[in-house]
Automatic annotation (TrEMBL):
<keyword id="KW-0812">Transmembrane</keyword>
<feature type="transmembrane region" description="Helical">
    <location>
        <begin position="112"/>
        <end position="130"/>
    </location>
</feature>
<dbReference type="InterPro" id="IPR006684">
    <property type="entry name" value="YbgC/YbaW"/>
</dbReference>
<keyword id="KW-0378">Hydrolase</keyword>
<dbReference type="InterPro" id="IPR029069">
    <property type="entry name" value="HotDog_dom_sf"/>
</dbReference>
<dbReference type="InterPro" id="IPR008272">
    <property type="entry name" value="HB-CoA_thioesterase_AS"/>
</dbReference>
<dbReference type="InterPro" id="IPR006683">
    <property type="entry name" value="Thioestr_dom"/>
</dbReference>
<dbReference type="GO" id="GO:0047617">
    <property type="term" value="F:fatty acyl-CoA hydrolase activity"/>
</dbReference>
<dbReference type="InterPro" id="IPR050563">
    <property type="entry name" value="4-hydroxybenzoyl-CoA_TE"/>
</dbReference>
<keyword id="KW-0472">Membrane</keyword>
<dbReference type="Pfam" id="PF03061">
    <property type="entry name" value="4HBT"/>
</dbReference>
<protein>
    <submittedName>
        <fullName>Tol-pal system-associated acyl-CoA thioesterase</fullName>
    </submittedName>
</protein>
<feature type="domain" description="Thioesterase">
    <location>
        <begin position="30"/>
        <end position="113"/>
    </location>
</feature>
<keyword id="KW-1133">Transmembrane helix</keyword>
<comment type="similarity">
    <text>Belongs to the 4-hydroxybenzoyl-CoA thioesterase family.</text>
</comment>
<dbReference type="InterPro" id="IPR014166">
    <property type="entry name" value="Tol-Pal_acyl-CoA_thioesterase"/>
</dbReference>
Length: 148
């Protein structure tokens, strides 16, 4: 299977990534441990960037002229319903805004049509010294933000 198939798909500006719940994702009750949703959503954000042509390894290697990294600065979570072992979940990710050195993404984790968790995630772009940096115009365009 190629990397693109593993990275999910983009439909109407939303990234969709399917994830199966494994035993290791659950707590003693058989329900997904709450912190594991953060991992699922991280995979969604990373694969969305990957399908847009923005790769963490290339950024870290200085592809834009300076080594850059994404860090989560703020996250708001709203838990609605639990996921259980063997469930197939869809992590939906969409960009809300990209301004300066920060981006805001909306994410939803669903089981079928049932929303399990919703999140608003603010990520910042920083250099190796931890200083905020704007993404290069080429990267902004790959993410669908041509101006600003």
């Amino acid at each position: 299977m190629d990397d693109i198939a593993l990275a999910g798909r983009i439909e109407a500006g939303h990234h969709l990534l399917q994830i199966r719940v494994y035993y290791e994702d659950t707590d003693f009750s058989g329900i997904v441990y709450h912190a594991n949703y953060l991992k699922f959503m991280e995979r969604g954000r990373t694969d969305f960037l990957r399908l847009c042509g923005v790769h963490h390894a290339e950024l870290a290697a200085g592809a834009g002229g300076e080594a850059l990294h994404f860090v989560v600065r703020h996250m708001e979570l709203d838990f609605h319903a639990p996921a259980r072992i063997d469930d197939v979940l869809t992590v939906e990710t969409r960009f809300r805004e990209l301004r300066g050195a920060r981006m805001v993404l909306d994410q939803v984790v669903r089981r079928g049509a049932t929303v399990l968790i919703g999140a608003a995630v603010t990520a910042a772009v920083i250099n190796a010294a931890g200083r905020p940096r704007r993404l290069a115009q080429e990267m902004r365009e790959k993410l669908g933000f041509a101006a600003g």
